[in-house]
Specification:
This protein has 443 residues and is an alpha+beta fold. The protein has 2 domains: 192 residues, 3-Layer(aba) Sandwich (D-Maltodextrin-Binding Protein, domain 2), CATH 3.40.190.10; 211 residues, D-Maltodextrin-Binding Protein, domain 2. It contains 18 helices and 13 strands. α8 crosses α9.
Length: 443
C-alpha cells in the first residue's frame, strides 16, 4: 500500500451541471491538467461509452494533489481486457484507474492486479445506497476490489402500435415465445445481439437464468467449477434461439447483429417496427434522433415507443435481465494507491453518476440518484423504475476468475445462432467448456 503516513484527504472540486461542457471534454487523449510541481498524474483507462462526460469528470475530480488523465480503450470488451491485462501482468505502475466490465473484475482481482479498498474507503464505495446487482460485481473473496460507477441492464423496447396490432398485452409479463409470435404475425422483427462476441453470451446467460439454470455453478472453485449448461434450462434457452431463427422474425444479418444494428428497425420506413432487447442507452438514442434518419419521425412517433421488463424464458419463472455496466478498479502497482482510490471514489460519486445518466443514458449504481430531480426530469417515471428494478433483480454473468475462457467457449459452440439446436447445443457446449477448463481443449 502507501509508503509513509496517509496525507490529508484531497480537496475535491464538486461536479456541476455543466460537467459535459468542461474544457477538457474535447481532449480525450490529453491530460486535463498540466504537470506542475511533480504532483502525480493518474491514467484512467476508459471504454468509449460517455467519453466526453468522463473526460469532464476527470477534469473536475483533479485536485491540488493529483491530476487524472484519460486514456481511451478499444471498443470491444474483450480487447479492453487484453490491453489492460498485458499492462498489469507486466506490473505497470502507470495503469492507475481502469473502467472494467464487471465480468473481468474477478479475474483481475484473483491475479492480484487490483488494489482492494480498505476500511472507511471500502465502506464509502459499497454502502447501503448501492443497488444489489452492482454491489455484487465489486466484491471478491470478501474484499471490495473496485468501485461501481454506472450500471446497465436490458429491457424490451417495442412499438406500442405493433404490440396492439398483434394482440399482445404488454401490461403483463411476456415470454420470448409470445414476443416472437407477435412479431411474426405482423411481419415485424425481433432485435437481439447474436454476433460472436460478449453480448451474445449476455443473451444466452439471461435465457438460461430465466429458466432457473446457470452456465456454471460453484465458480469459487475456479477451473473446477461445475458446468451446468447441459440442463433443461440450457435446452429452454436454445429453444428460444431456434424459435426466433425459424420464425421469419429475424433481422437481416442475425449472426452479426449487435447493440446498434437493430436500433433503426424500430422506426424504419414502411415497417410496423420491432420488439428489441437492448441496453438503457436506447431511450436517449430515440429521444435525441427525433426527425432524423433512423429515429422517430416526430414527437407523436416517439410516443409510440414502449418498454417492458426483459422477456421470460419460461412462463412460470421471473426473467433475469442482464446486468452490466462499469466498475472502476485501481491498479495494484500504482505508486500512491490510497490517493488513486480517492480519485476512484470521486469519479464514481453521485454527481458523476447523475451526469452520466442524464447525458449518456448510463444508469446509476446508487438508488438515491434515481430519485434526483435531474433524472426524474430526463426520464419517464415508469422507465426509471423499470431500469432500477431490472438492475436490482437482474442476473449477473458467472463471477469467475476464468470468465474469459467460459465466455469464449460458449461463443464457439452457440455461434452461429442459425445452428443452435436444443437437442445438441447445450450438451456439446458443456462438454467443450469442461474440456477447456480442464486444459484438455484449446479455444
Amino acid at each position: 500500500m502507501r509508503r509513509g503516513s496517509p496525507p490529508a484527504a484531497p480537496r475535491r472540486r464538486r461536479l456541476t451541471g455543466g460537467l459535459a461542457a468542461a474544457a477538457c471534454a474535447a481532449a480525450i487523449l490529453t491530460a486535463c491538467s498540466g504537470d506542475d510541481g511533480g504532483k502525480p498524474t493518474f491514467n484512467w483507462y476508459i471504454n468509449p461509452d460517455g467519453q466526453e462526460t468522463l473526460a469532464a469528470i476527470a477534469e473536475q475530480c483533479s485536485t491540488d494533489e493529483y491530476d487524472i488523465e484519460i486514456q481511451l480503450l478499444p471498443t470491444s470488451a474483450t480487447d479492453q481486457r487484453t490491453q489492460l491485462a498485458r499492462r498489469l501482468a507486466a506490473e505497470d505502475s502507470s495503469t492507475n484507474l481502469m473502467s472494467l466490465d464487471p465480468v473481468f473484475v474477478p479475474e483481475f482481482a484473483n491475479a492480484g492486479w487490483l488494489a482492494p479498498f480498505e476500511g472507511k474507503l471500502a465502506e464509502e464505495v459499497v454502502d447501503d445506497d448501492v443497488l444489489a446487482g452492482p454491489a455484487t460485481t465489486v466484491e471478491w473473496e470478501g474484499e471490495v476490489v473496485a468501485a461501481p460507477q454506472w450500471a446497465n441492464t436490458q429491457v424490451l423496447w417495442y412499438r406500442k402500435s405493433l404490440a396492439e396490432a398483434a394482440g399482445l398485452d404488454m401490461s403483463k409479463p411476456v415470454t420470448w415465445a409470445q414476443v416472437i409470435d407477435a412479431a411474426a404475425s405482423q411481419d415485424a422483427t425481433v432485435g437481439v445481439q447474436a454476433d460472436r462476441y460478449e453480448a451474445y453470451v449476455v443473451w444466452i446467460n439471461s435465457l438460461i437464468q430465466g429458466a432457473g439454470g446457470a452456465i456454471v455453478e460453484k465458480t469459487e472453485d475456479g477451473r473446477d467449477a461445475e458446468v451446468t449448461l447441459d440442463s433443461p434450462a440450457g435446452e429452454a434457452a436454445a429453444g428460444v434461439i431456434k424459435q426466433l431463427v425459424d420464425s421469419g422474425a429475424t433481422q437481416p444479418g442475425l449472426s452479426t447483429s449487435n447493440e446498434g444494428s437493430s436500433l433503426g428497425a424500430m422506426y424504419a420506413d414502411d415497417s410496423p417496427g420491432e420488439f428489441m432487447v437492448n441496453w438503457t442507452f436506447a431511450y436517449k438514442n430515440y429521444v435525441d434522433t427525433v426527425g432524423q434518419p433512423g429515429g422517430p419521425a416526430d414527437e407523436e412517433a416517439l410516443e409510440d415507443l414502449g418498454w417492458a421488463r426483459y422477456p421470460r424464458t419460461v412462463e412460470d419463472e421471473e426473467s433475469k435481465p442482464p446486468v452490466g455496466g462499469i466498475d472502476i478498479g485501481v491498479g495494484a502497482f500504482t505508486e500512491d494507491v490510497e490517493l488513486a482510490q480517492e480519485a476512484a471514489i470521486c469519479v464514481t460519486s453521485p454527481e458523476a453518476q447523475t451526469q452520466l445518466a442524464v447525458t449518456d443514458g448510463l444508469m446509476p449504481t446508487r438508488g438515491s440518484v434515481y430519485d434526483s430531480d435531474e433524472l426524474t426530469e430526463a426520464y419517464p417515471e415508469d422507465l426509471l423504475a423499470l431500469f432500477r428494478e431490472s438492475i436490482d433483480e437482474g442476473g449477473p454473468r458467472p463471477q469467475s476468475a476464468y470468465y474469459s475462457q467460459i465466455s469464449s467457449a460458449v461463443q464457439s459452440v452457440w455461434h452461429s445462432p442459425t445452428r443452435v439446436d436444443p437437442d445438441s447445443t447445450p450438451r456439446e457446449s458443456a462438454e467443450f467448456l469442461r474440456a477447456v477448463l480442464d486444459g484438455k481443449a484449446l479455444l
